[in-house]
Amino acid sequence: MTNALPSLEIDDLLAEASRRAGGRSDFGEPQFMQGLERLVDSLERDAFLTPIGRMIARERILNSAKNRLDYLGDRKRHPEIAREKIVAPIVVVGMPRTGSTILHDLLAQDPDSRAPLTWEVMFPSPPPEPATFETDPRIEACDATFPGVDAQIPAFKAMHPMGARLSQECVTIMADSMVSALFHNQFRVTAYQDWVDTQADFAPVYAFHEQQLQHLQWRVKRDRWVLKTGAHMWGLEHLLARYPDARIVFTHRDPVKTMTSYASLTALVRSLGSQTIDPKEIARDWTARIKRVLEHAIEVRTRPVAARAQFYDMYFQDFVSDQMGEVEKIYRAFGLPLTEEARRRMKLFIADNPKDKHGIHRYSPEEFGVDPAAVRESFGPYMQRFGLEPERG
Fold it and tell me: Is 390 within the bounds of a domain?
């Protein structure tokens, strides 16, 4: 009797996703299949997957594929979803590890704002309902998935809090289009990420992104969306073409801290399913990729496509020093009212989520082969443009 490895065969993945989606089989535009094929090929060739890693990769793919079938199927059943308008979303963009996650969760405390929550992104069908938005059984099902991660990599919570009711970032939503930097963070899929960086078309990614927001918004509406991911740097021009009135919070930090922290996070996440982890390769690889897309996103800000958007540049050190003060500046910059109820909820969130609540994330440039002087020289024009100083400690 043999123990077969979890299958990553395309036909098997598609058939199982269809089965889980109740027989639905329309995956929509063709780039989804292109991305899936490139991802699977890179998982097989590049990722050094353990049997557990293959199982994790298979479930990650199946979840995204099933979600895509469900979004498209629900849209056919309820064509009125397509009439939803996504107006002037607030979008947090910037390098990873710049305070964007806590900022996103903080902005989501405003009862007039709507963030994609982890449970509804994990289980989007049927579309969420107002009456059960706080009690939906999918919340408990989502929370039930986290103890396993916590047991396997207990340090993860110190780096990135988890919870069904916490805001989820768009890099996860974009995985349902099979064009997302999420996969190369979780698995070493260099060839796939090369395709994302240089060949993937982000126009259909953002077309589907809008459909996903319409789906979630259909019955649970607020005044505005608050969205977040550094992955928007890859296709910022397409985001702005889709949401020309977007209000962009661009987060900034010393790139030495950013690159080292992100390499540490990536190494930790990959350790759950990969036989081989090379921290120095991770840092080299992601530093080059993020430098390119950061420069791309900054250049996009000068294009006509950005003419109607509003931008606010937020500095990590300012945010750490005074979280509520930075939120107030963001609201003023975008001409938004900060109600007393929003302020009260935000202050409660800050009090309930102090720094290092889940432990201390310790890392050093030396562990990852990061040469601070070389990184700061490479990112010199960026640091000069935004007046960034080397971060101490």
Answer: no
Q: Is the pTM of this model over 0.90?
A: yes
Decide if 212 contacts 64 (C-beta within 8 A): no
Contact 375, 260 (CB under 8 A): no
**What angle (nearest 5°) sits at the alpha carbon of residue 103, between those of residues 102 and 104?**
90
Residue 9 in any domain: the answer is no
Q: How many domains does the chain have?
A: 1
Partners of 117 in beta bridges = 167
Q: How many Å is the maximal CA-CA distance in the chain?
A: 67
Q: Which amino acid is at 219?
A: R
Q: Supply the range of the domain harboring residue 140.
A: 17-385
In a domain, 3, yes or no: no
What are the tens digits of pLDDT across the range 315-333? 999 999 999 999 999 999 9
Burial of 204 (0-12, 13-18, 19+ CB in 10 A): middle
Q: Are 36 and 61 in contact, with CB atoms under 8 Å apart?
A: yes
Q: What is the pLDDT of residues 95-145, one digit of tens each?
A: 999 999 999 999 999 999 999 999 999 999 999 999 999 999 999 999 999
**Does some domain include residue 11?**
no
